[in-house]
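As noted in the main text, all predictions were made from sequence alone. Below is one such record, for Aspartate aminotransferase.
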Amino acid sequence: FLQTLGVQTLGGTGALSIGAQFLKKCLGRSHFYLSDPHWKAYEIIIMQAGFEKSSCYRYWNAEKQYIDMDGLSEDLSKAEPNSVVLLQACAHNPTGCDPTPEQWAKIASLMKKNRLFPFFDIAYQGLASGDMDKDAETVRYFVDQGFELMCAQSFSKNFGLYGERVGSLTIVSNCAHTMPHIASKMINIAEGNYLVPPLHGSRIVASVLKKPALFQEWQSCVKTMLNRIIAMRSGLKKRLEALKTPGSWDHITSQRGMFCLIGLAPAQIEYLRKKHHVYTLENGRMNVAALTPSNLDHVAWSIHDTVLNAKG
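Prediction:
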């Protein structure tokens, strides 16, 4: 039977860090695979944990605005056995596009065949679909398929506790007798990094999760947050279409979560920043949660002007 162990961490990044350190120092894993594109901090955390090599598996077809399942499958099928593969459970950062259940099943099959170790990051639970269980179903599917795995979890976004650094690392193993040893190693690694995480934020989370009335209220609050993000996506798309901005903007509303890959070229992103003071990352990732009814018109007009006047 699969056994689980949970470790409180300094946010999701702390979970990623001590998990990666354990995989490297205790299990001798040396090769990590990340999606292309991925959150920039992933590679920093992984390499600082001592991994010797990180590679990317294809994930996103920027031209057609969908998951490159053929490229992803080819890259995972060629991955070195016993490598660690980072998978985002929901609301993929930065693309906002997640595999379908059928695609996840294919990914799981490839990973099992090639003896690859899944390391999930679930930083936006509830902010993809509005349903906590649905946003976690991919992790549970892999567990049901018999995988040993790790899952880094953050409560920064869905609890609004950015400054409190509340996270957890869940380890799933098929060897019950090894769990005490794993726990001991995890404690040693954590002590070498930060000793113990703070109590304040974790007690807030624990209190909400343990009390049915608070839990229900929290779920409702997360849905309210998500609905606002969805409304901002819809508002931006409608404004761009009303302005007759060249191109299709369907991807703004088809993507999920806090972020959107807006689809602008590097030169256009620079133009958008310098002329209109609208800021995205270099890859065009926009924080949809930063949009408000008062700035939507400005952002839409800025993108419209950029598409018309900046070379792609």
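The mean pLDDT is 94. The chain has two domains: 3-208, 214-309. These features were considered when defining construct boundaries for the mutagenesis experiments described in Section 2.9.
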